[in-house]
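Many introductory courses stop at the sequence. We go one step further.
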Amino acid sequence: MSAMPTTSREWHLVARPHGWPKPEDFALREVAVPEPGEGQILVRTIHMSVDPYMRGRMNDVRSYIPPFELDRPMEGGAVGEVVASRSDAFKPGDHVLHGLGWREYAVVGAENAVKVDPELAPLSTYLGVLGMPGLTAYAGLLEVASFKEGDAVFVSGAAGAVGLQVGQIARLKGASRVIGSAGTDEKVKALVEEYGFDAAFNYKNGPVAEQLKEAAPDGIDVYFDNVGGDHLEAAIGALKVHGRATLCGAISGYNETEPQPGPRNMIAIIGKRLRLQGVLVRDHAAMQPQFVQEVGGWVRSGELKYRETVVHGVEHALDAFLGMLRGENTGKMIVTF
């Protein structure tokens, strides 16, 4: 059990980024640690998550989740140890998952914390393979894209936390072919040799549409989109009649300062009777027990592999976030305090 702290370092957004975020848009500040109130717990962060969606929260625009406030600590998934509790649901020494990352210590409402067991799985996995990215992959493929055995599946951003899991779940569920795109030759090699993809390509090595056609000459039934832009256009071209696409992210445009043009071949959506649907993980909370049971079993058996890219120290959390936006991670990007 940790000793009671007096101060905590936390990352504040101090200016709204224009284009790519810059270090001067953020500040690491030392603050006093408050006592938890009735029904609250004080948690020492052990691991925190950095995720693509956080870039959108830095903009002052209306969306499915409120923007970060200026001169206030940012938020995100974190797991940590309870050091003080004024809730009957938790005691010091418990480990919990919560949404107040980007800080060394957090006062969390007990209703917003979930107890996790480090004996069942490493704590960091509750932020990745068994956490929000994992459930996004599971629900986005099986429920939103209505995946069925024999489907040919294309995943963009396939070496990231979500994409890496989508491809493996598709394979384990009986896909006829799994194709992935990534941004380095090393990642492409790992997708095929380590994670069981049937084919993969480096989108920087040539037009995506041409590389996808070569990798999937008979077309695809399902596309899982983490990138948007030219990947989405290429996938619309490759999808078969009644194909389905899950739109999870569009990281290719997150740091653009002007609106990017949409796919030029959207007329094909009509002729092919395609279904393109967005996914937000919170809509699929009911799948959580099924997800943990099935994916947890695959992880334990070694049938589903996961990768984490770990950055150490709260002072390097911003470096981890910016590195994730640049694609420097394979699998889940984790900051360990």
